[in-house]
Specification:
- By secondary structure, the protein is mainly alpha-helical.
- It has a domain at about 65-165.
- The protein is built from two helices and two strands; from the N terminus they run αββα.
- The protein has helices at about 1-15, 35-165; strands at about 20, 25.
- Strand 1 (about 20) and strand 2 form a beta hairpin.
- The longest helix has about 130 residues, at about 35-165.
- The chain starts with a helix and ends in a 14-residue tail after the last helix.
Length: about 180
Protein backbone atom coordinates (compact mmCIF):
# COMPACT_ATOMS: atom_id res chain seq x y z
CA UNK A 1 0.00 0.00 0.00
CA UNK A 2 2.84 2.34 0.87
CA UNK A 3 4.58 1.55 -2.42
CA UNK A 4 1.44 2.30 -4.34
CA UNK A 5 1.10 5.64 -2.61
CA UNK A 6 4.72 6.50 -3.45
CA UNK A 7 4.18 5.51 -7.07
CA UNK A 8 1.07 7.71 -7.36
CA UNK A 9 2.96 10.63 -5.82
CA UNK A 10 5.83 10.08 -8.23
CA UNK A 11 3.47 10.15 -11.19
CA UNK A 12 1.67 13.23 -10.03
CA UNK A 13 4.91 14.98 -9.12
CA UNK A 14 6.34 14.27 -12.53
CA UNK A 15 3.29 15.59 -14.37
CA UNK A 16 2.71 18.63 -12.16
CA UNK A 17 6.19 20.11 -12.31
CA UNK A 18 6.40 23.68 -13.39
CA UNK A 19 7.73 24.11 -16.85
CA UNK A 20 8.07 27.25 -18.83
CA UNK A 21 7.20 27.45 -22.43
CA UNK A 22 8.61 29.83 -24.96
CA UNK A 23 6.39 32.72 -24.01
CA UNK A 24 7.26 32.52 -20.27
CA UNK A 25 3.94 31.20 -19.12
CA UNK A 26 4.26 28.45 -16.61
CA UNK A 27 2.34 25.35 -17.38
CA UNK A 28 1.10 23.28 -14.41
CA UNK A 29 -0.02 20.18 -16.23
CA UNK A 30 1.55 18.68 -19.27
CA UNK A 31 -0.36 16.19 -21.34
CA UNK A 32 2.20 13.72 -22.63
CA UNK A 33 2.64 9.96 -22.80
CA UNK A 34 3.49 9.69 -19.10
CA UNK A 35 0.16 11.21 -18.20
CA UNK A 36 -1.69 8.81 -20.48
CA UNK A 37 0.22 5.80 -19.08
CA UNK A 38 -0.53 6.98 -15.54
CA UNK A 39 -4.21 7.33 -16.39
CA UNK A 40 -4.35 3.91 -18.00
CA UNK A 41 -2.48 2.32 -15.08
CA UNK A 42 -4.84 4.10 -12.66
CA UNK A 43 -7.87 2.80 -14.56
CA UNK A 44 -6.39 -0.72 -14.61
CA UNK A 45 -5.62 -0.36 -10.92
CA UNK A 46 -9.21 0.75 -10.20
CA UNK A 47 -10.63 -2.15 -12.23
CA UNK A 48 -8.39 -4.60 -10.36
CA UNK A 49 -9.31 -3.04 -7.03
CA UNK A 50 -12.96 -3.16 -7.99
CA UNK A 51 -12.69 -6.85 -8.90
CA UNK A 52 -10.45 -7.82 -5.98
CA UNK A 53 -11.55 -5.52 -3.17
CA UNK A 54 -14.61 -3.35 -3.72
CA UNK A 55 -17.03 -5.93 -5.15
CA UNK A 56 -16.21 -8.60 -2.52
CA UNK A 57 -16.42 -5.98 0.23
CA UNK A 58 -19.74 -4.73 -1.11
CA UNK A 59 -20.98 -8.34 -1.40
CA UNK A 60 -19.87 -9.14 2.18
CA UNK A 61 -21.40 -5.90 3.41
CA UNK A 62 -24.67 -6.71 1.65
CA UNK A 63 -24.63 -10.27 3.05
CA UNK A 64 -24.07 -8.90 6.55
CA UNK A 65 -26.85 -6.37 6.11
CA UNK A 66 -29.13 -9.17 4.88
CA UNK A 67 -28.14 -11.36 7.85
CA UNK A 68 -28.75 -8.50 10.29
CA UNK A 69 -32.10 -7.71 8.67
CA UNK A 70 -33.12 -11.39 8.65
CA UNK A 71 -32.08 -11.86 12.28
CA UNK A 72 -33.88 -8.66 13.22
CA UNK A 73 -37.03 -9.93 11.52
CA UNK A 74 -36.62 -13.32 13.23
CA UNK A 75 -36.12 -11.62 16.59
CA UNK A 76 -39.14 -9.42 15.96
CA UNK A 77 -41.24 -12.47 15.01
CA UNK A 78 -39.96 -14.36 18.06
CA UNK A 79 -40.79 -11.37 20.25
CA UNK A 80 -44.31 -11.20 18.81
CA UNK A 81 -44.71 -14.95 19.31
CA UNK A 82 -43.46 -14.59 22.88
CA UNK A 83 -45.93 -11.80 23.54
CA UNK A 84 -48.72 -13.90 22.03
CA UNK A 85 -47.74 -16.87 24.19
CA UNK A 86 -47.58 -14.64 27.27
CA UNK A 87 -51.08 -13.36 26.49
CA UNK A 88 -52.36 -16.91 25.98
CA UNK A 89 -50.70 -17.96 29.23
CA UNK A 90 -52.27 -15.00 31.07
CA UNK A 91 -55.71 -15.83 29.65
CA UNK A 92 -55.16 -19.49 30.55
CA UNK A 93 -54.29 -18.53 34.14
CA UNK A 94 -57.39 -16.35 34.37
CA UNK A 95 -59.57 -19.14 33.01
CA UNK A 96 -57.96 -21.61 35.40
CA UNK A 97 -58.62 -19.26 38.31
CA UNK A 98 -62.25 -18.86 37.27
CA UNK A 99 -62.70 -22.61 36.82
CA UNK A 100 -60.99 -23.32 40.13
CA UNK A 101 -63.17 -20.76 41.89
CA UNK A 102 -66.28 -22.17 40.24
CA UNK A 103 -65.31 -25.73 41.21
CA UNK A 104 -64.53 -24.59 44.75
CA UNK A 105 -67.90 -22.87 45.10
CA UNK A 106 -69.63 -25.92 43.61
CA UNK A 107 -67.86 -28.25 46.08
CA UNK A 108 -68.68 -25.92 48.99
CA UNK A 109 -72.34 -25.93 47.95
CA UNK A 110 -72.33 -29.75 47.62
CA UNK A 111 -70.73 -30.13 51.05
CA UNK A 112 -73.26 -27.74 52.57
CA UNK A 113 -76.06 -29.82 51.09
CA UNK A 114 -74.43 -33.01 52.38
CA UNK A 115 -73.96 -31.46 55.80
CA UNK A 116 -77.60 -30.40 55.90
CA UNK A 117 -78.67 -33.89 54.83
CA UNK A 118 -76.44 -35.48 57.47
CA UNK A 119 -77.75 -33.09 60.14
CA UNK A 120 -81.36 -33.78 59.09
CA UNK A 121 -80.72 -37.53 59.15
CA UNK A 122 -79.07 -37.23 62.55
CA UNK A 123 -82.02 -35.18 63.88
CA UNK A 124 -84.60 -37.63 62.59
CA UNK A 125 -82.55 -40.55 63.89
CA UNK A 126 -82.22 -38.80 67.27
CA UNK A 127 -86.00 -38.16 67.35
CA UNK A 128 -86.67 -41.82 66.56
CA UNK A 129 -84.19 -42.94 69.20
CA UNK A 130 -85.75 -40.49 71.68
CA UNK A 131 -89.24 -41.78 70.92
CA UNK A 132 -88.04 -45.37 71.29
CA UNK A 133 -86.26 -44.49 74.53
CA UNK A 134 -89.35 -42.69 75.86
CA UNK A 135 -91.50 -45.69 74.96
CA UNK A 136 -89.03 -48.04 76.66
CA UNK A 137 -88.89 -45.78 79.72
CA UNK A 138 -92.68 -45.63 79.82
CA UNK A 139 -92.81 -49.42 79.67
CA UNK A 140 -90.10 -49.70 82.32
CA UNK A 141 -91.97 -47.22 84.54
CA UNK A 142 -95.18 -49.19 84.26
CA UNK A 143 -93.35 -52.43 84.86
CA UNK A 144 -91.56 -50.94 87.87
CA UNK A 145 -94.87 -49.63 89.20
CA UNK A 146 -96.49 -53.02 88.84
CA UNK A 147 -93.52 -54.74 90.44
CA UNK A 148 -93.00 -52.24 93.24
CA UNK A 149 -96.67 -51.60 94.15
CA UNK A 150 -96.99 -54.64 96.45
CA UNK A 151 -93.65 -53.87 98.06
CA UNK A 152 -94.64 -50.25 98.62
CA UNK A 153 -97.97 -51.34 100.16
CA UNK A 154 -96.19 -53.73 102.49
CA UNK A 155 -93.70 -51.03 103.43
CA UNK A 156 -96.52 -48.48 104.01
CA UNK A 157 -98.39 -50.98 106.23
CA UNK A 158 -95.26 -51.64 108.22
CA UNK A 159 -94.52 -47.91 108.71
CA UNK A 160 -98.17 -47.18 109.64
CA UNK A 161 -98.16 -50.06 112.14
CA UNK A 162 -95.02 -48.81 113.78
CA UNK A 163 -96.22 -45.21 113.93
CA UNK A 164 -99.78 -45.98 115.06
CA UNK A 165 -98.89 -48.84 117.28
CA UNK A 166 -101.42 -51.29 115.88
CA UNK A 167 -101.56 -53.17 112.67
CA UNK A 168 -103.32 -51.55 109.74
CA UNK A 169 -104.05 -52.74 106.24
CA UNK A 170 -103.74 -50.23 103.39
CA UNK A 171 -105.96 -51.07 100.47
CA UNK A 172 -105.98 -49.86 96.94
CA UNK A 173 -104.69 -46.32 96.56
CA UNK A 174 -104.88 -43.78 93.85
CA UNK A 175 -101.91 -43.31 91.55
CA UNK A 176 -100.27 -40.09 92.75
CA UNK A 177 -97.45 -40.10 90.22
CA UNK A 178 -99.66 -39.54 87.20
Amino acid sequence: MRCLLHYCLFLVKGSLTKQSNKQGVTQLLEFNATFIVAMISFIVFMLMMNAILYKPLARIQKERADIVAREYDEAKAANEKTECLKEQQRRGREMSKLLAKENFNKKVYEYKLRREAIIDNAKSSAKKDLAISNAELDGDRREAKVLLEPTVKDLANLVASKVLGYETKIGECDDVTK
